[in-house]
Amino acid sequence: MTESVRRAGDASPEQRLPEWDGDHARTDTATADGDGELLGIDPAELGDEDLIREMQSLHRTRLDTLRHATDSALANHLRRTAELETEYLARHPGREVDPSRLRDA
Hints:
Radius of gyration: 17 Å
Strand order of the largest sheet: 1-2
Number of helices: 5
Low-confidence stretches: 1-8, 11-32
Number of strands: 2
Distance between the termini: 50 Å
Mean pLDDT: 75
Order of helices and strands: HHEEHHH
Shape: globular
Helix content: 40-55%
């Protein structure tokens, strides 16, 4: 195994993924809480591709965040996931359901 592969295997998911740059919050369009802390771009302002990319990023880092992040980081992760998924469902209320995902009632 090469040194670069070994180091990549020890890195966090965020460090292994070259496209990762946090939650893509920018000061020009990001919302802030009462303390001025950036909470991310309003999901309603994201295009469909950006919305999907943000959800993929959160889901990719979910277990690592749950197991190892601070309480505040986990709370932020949960809040952001809920915001993005709520926006997705609002945009796609009639989304296609895969029949293989259904259970007998």
